[in-house]
Write a structure and sequence with these properties.
Blueprint lengths: L1 H15 L19 E28 L3 E9 L5 E8 L3 E28 L1 H20 L18 H4 L1
Antiparallel strand pairs: 1-4, 2-3
């Protein structure tokens, strides 16, 4: 009895979550005549953290040799006197150090994804016109780099040739 309840529950979930089939209505206009599956390219922008490195310059001084200029007499806590030389710093040189700086920057990347949509013939022809316009703009773009023929993968025949 428990198995039957499980199968009925699974069947109900499968019917509710089933994708649109070719006999259902169009995803664009809502009509239900001659609905067919069409592949559409969806473009999404996604923010991705990128790590960049750069250099910053920092100037600092390195003192030259000190010059001995007399002596200083000091008395410690016991009352003893000590004589120490008095060192006076001389000129210094400026040096530059390069520091590596790490920065995390948010960059937008385009992500392309093919999705299946069920549309009627009218909406599918409208999509074909949009793709033709996109191809026309692609022809005006600079040509893609040539690929060696030995490296190209074989292309599967189109379904219309197989019929």
């Amino acid at each position: 009895m428990r198995k039957i309840e499980t199968w009925v529950a699974l069947a109900i979930v499968a019917l509710w979550s089933a994708p649109a089939m070719a006999g259902d209505c169009c995803a664009d206009c809502g009509c239900n005549c001659n609905v067919r599956a069409v592949c559409r390219l969806k473009c999404e922008t996604k923010k991705v953290p990128k790590t960049e490195y750069c250099c910053e310059c920092e100037d600092f001084c390195i003192p030259g040799p000190s010059k001995k200029c007399g002596c200083i007499t000091e008395t410690d806590c016991c009352g003893c006197e000590h004589t120490k030389p008095n060192w006076i710093p001389q000129c210094a040189k400026v040096h530059t150090r390069h520091k590596l700086v790490k920065k995390v920057v948010e960059k937008e990347e385009k992500k392309y994804k093919w999705v299946v949509e069920y549309v009627c013939d009218h909406c599918a022809s409208r999509c074909a016109a949009c793709e033709a316009a996109a191809n026309a703009t692609a022809e005006t773009a600079p040509p893609a780099p040539q690929v060696d023929q030995a490296l190209q993968l074989p292309v599967a025949p189109s379904p219309s040739i197989l019929k």
